[in-house]
Design a protein that fits this description.
Layout: H1 4-21, H2 31-35, E1 43-45, E2 47-49, E3 51-60, E4 63-73, E5 95-97, E6 99-101, E7 106-108, E8 111-117, E9 123-128, H3 132-141, E10 149-159, E11 162-172, E12 178-181
Antiparallel strand pairs: 1-8, 2-5, 3-4, 4-10, 6-7, 8-9, 9-12, 10-11
């Protein structure tokens, strides 16, 4: 009998070769290719974001209001902040601004972009946010916990050089909406 370890490369090699062929190619989107998009075609964007800024300020007539030590991440700073549902914890990382529930077939992008026809007959660019509110209403009605987009936007708040405290926004559970843009 052959040891399992010596057979492992023979089983992994075909699997790796087959997986390489299944990858989709990324293509640049230019004006010509976008002008050919019609009907139900649209673009879905998924944004995973981790960022920081030392200072963001608004200055007016010599006074200033500033956010210092600004961080945007998933908010999983210490163990226990973000349980993963399997007895572990999600590590500190990028905020994943979308929702993925593969077991229910739910894949909500951060933004969905589509060209629509408005009530006046003109074309509009529709930018849709994920409908997290409806999904959570359905989950709660079925006895399941609401899902959240793990997000933390935190910063120290200053007026001039005086700190007035800290501001923090965490975990989105109720989100839906559409923004429409059109020319005149």
């Amino acid at each position: 009998m052959l040891p399992t370890r010596s057979l492992l490369p023979f089983f992994l090699a075909p699997a790796l070769l087959a997986s390489a062929a299944s990858q989709a190619a990324m293509e640049a989107l230019d004006n010509d290719s976008l002008s050919q998009v019609t009907g139900q075609a649209g673009i879905s964007l998924r944004l995973d974001l981790r960022a920081g800024a030392a200072r963001v300020a608004w200055v007016d007539d010599g006074g200033s209001l500033s956010l210092r030590n600004l961080v945007i991440d998933n908010g999983c700073v210490k163990a226990g902040d973000c349980p993963d549902g399997r007895g572990g914890n999600i590590p500190l990382g990028a905020a994943q601004l979308g929702l993925s529930l593969p077991i229910f077939g739910v894949e909500q992008p951060t933004l969905a972009l589509d060209v629509t026809t408005g009530s006046g007959g003109g074309q509009q660019l529709a930018i849709s946010l994920p409908d997290l509110a409806t999904i959570n209403d359905q989950l709660i009605a079925s006895g399941l916990p609401a899902q959240r987009i793990r997000l933390r936007v935190a910063s120290d708040l200053y007026i001039g050089d005086n700190s007035i405290g800290r501001i923090e926004l965490r975990d989105i559970t109720d989100l839906r909406g559409t923004i429409k843009v059109w020319g005149h």
